[in-house]
Amino acid sequence: MKKILIVDDELNMVNGLKDNLEFEGYEVDTALEGRTGLQKVLQSQYDLILLDIMLPEVSGFDICRTARKEGVNTPIILLTAKGEEIDKVLGLELGADDYITKPFSLRELLARIKTILRRAPIGKEGNGEPEFIRIGNIKVNFKNYQALEGTNEIKMSYKEFGILHYLYMNAGKIIQRDDLMSDVWGIEYDISTRTVDNFILKLRQKIEVDPNNPKIILTVHGMGYKMILS
Predict the structure, then answer these.
(1) Could you tell me which residue, 127 or 82, shows the higher pLDDT?
(2) Is residue 128 part of a domain?
């Protein structure tokens, strides 16, 4: 049974979501303020997190930022009443996997949840990939969301693994930014493609010998990116 954490300070909405998600067959845990939510995110295992942005004590942005910094790769869907593009961009850049703007329909939320849970784990059984794959400075296990530089674990977000895996599976091909947005995030986003550029920058800092002179993830000006594997 998939386990979902809801972090939101609107009690009626939390109770309604909990009842509906349990009816759909999910196990549900809840937190009504940011500090408790952050503790649960860091200390417990979940398959998905529904995270409100505007929370007392600790904001959803801070929870997302801290979780990714601490190596928590659990998919996160942000729940926000804000519609400004900058908030959506910031949430995705901090490591969120999706966002949905309040008020939202239960059907839409369930569709988003099912889409993300279908995409995890990244690796596929029997696809012939070795346990660890060498990409530049690091070794990556896409099935277990592990990245190592030597014996040291490199912290990467769920979305960073997703982008790296997509580029790896399409090595040698030119990948447009729009393709990354639609195929990795899974839905259309009305945001700037600079979000993708920022994720690419973070990946280069982890896999390239010289991130300012990349040899593995190349920019194809006016088009997108290409991964070159030796």
Answers:
(1) 82
(2) no
